[in-house]
Amino acid sequence: MDDNSIKRFGPLHVFAQSTPIWAVDDKIALRALGEERYQKNYNYKSIQDHGGILTFGSDFPVEFTLGLNALNNIEAGITRQPLGKADGTAGIFKEECLTLEDMIRAYTVNGARQLGLDDEVGTIEVGKKADLVLLNHNLFDIEPHQIHQTKILYTMMDGRVVYHRDIKVWLWERFQ
């Protein structure tokens, strides 16, 4: 995407929806676009910096392996490296790395805004549906390259638990 197009996102109130794990190493796009055009791909931070609103998803079934897990995508959006890589250097498009706060916003409130449901979901507030997940640790307390190892303990939709991980399994993993 060229710079002029990126600059139009904010004034036009455009949402940019993508799958961050693609930005780690998309050989298909590289072959299809060539090096010069490929370098203008996945410019999430630039879009956000120009007022564009980011939302992310899995693109299942196209990205049916690593991309299906939102936590994998969150890590990829922050590090731009293969999952678990901890050498401290961002992968391709390192200037386009996002923060954890950016990634959480793109998966929650921004998605709700894109769907026109931000008065019902997207944030945890009185009067909104309780759609949320409980994780086995605080993402802000771990290194970005560890995010993909995070386990979901509970998922709630509209205030009802629709998924729960066996607490005995979680305790065993945590304290073994």
Strand order of the largest sheet: 3-4-5
Sum up the overall morphology in one term. globular
Strand content: 5-15%
SSE topology string: HEHHEHHHEEEH
Count of domains: 1
| Assembly form of the protein | single chain
How many whole angstroms does the radius of gyration measure?
17 Å
Query: What share of residues is helical?
Result: 25-40%
- Average pLDDT number: 88
Provide a count of the helices.
7
Which blocks of ≥5 consecutive residues have pLDDT under 50? none
Question: What does the main sheet amount to?
Answer: 3 strands, antiparallel
The assigned structural class equals alpha+beta
Number of strands: 5
In whole angstroms, the N-to-C terminal distance is: 48 Å
Task: Describe this entry's structure for a reader.
The protein has a three-stranded antiparallel sheet, with no helix packed on it. It has a two-stranded parallel ribbon with strand order 1-2. The protein has one domain. Helix 4 packs antiparallel against helix 5. The protein is built from seven helices and five strands; from the N terminus they run αβααβαααβββα. The N and C termini lie far apart (48 Å). It has 176 residues and is an alpha+beta fold. 35% of the residues lie in helices and 13% in strands. A hairpin with a 2-residue loop joins strand 4 and strand 5.
